[in-house]
């Protein structure tokens, strides 16, 4: 099972939510989320954002919108 840091989780969150990670990575993400309240909250915020936006895949968002969202999530994670 892959072990994730909080920063690594941020980088692969969309793959996790799209169920595009291999089993080892998916299990590692779940283990990290089970022990990290901040990351668990981050994932829920990301899911809520996707719900509000109508579920467009991040790669289909305009680049500036995607960059602003990702920057906001990263800043929130650090605080």
TrEMBL record:
Residues 6-39 form the Putative zinc-finger domain. Gene3D superfamilies: Anti-sigma factor, zinc-finger domain (1.10.10.1320). Pfam families: zf-HC2. It comes from the Bacteria. InterPro entries: Anti_sigma_zinc_sf (IPR041916), Znf_put (IPR027383). Keywords: Transcription, Transcription regulation. This is Anti-sigma factor family protein. It comes from Nonomuraea mangrovi.
């Amino acid at each position: 099972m892959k072990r994730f840091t909080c920063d690594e989780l941020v980088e692969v969150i969309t793959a996790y939510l799209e169920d595009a990670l291999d089993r080892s990575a998916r299990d590692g993400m779940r283990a990290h989320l089970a022990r990290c309240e901040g990351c668990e909250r981050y994932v829920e915020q990301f899911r809520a954002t996707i719900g509000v936006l109508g579920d467009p895949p991040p790669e289909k968002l305009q680049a500036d919108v995607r960059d602003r969202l990702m920057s906001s999530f990263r800043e929130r994670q650090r605080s």
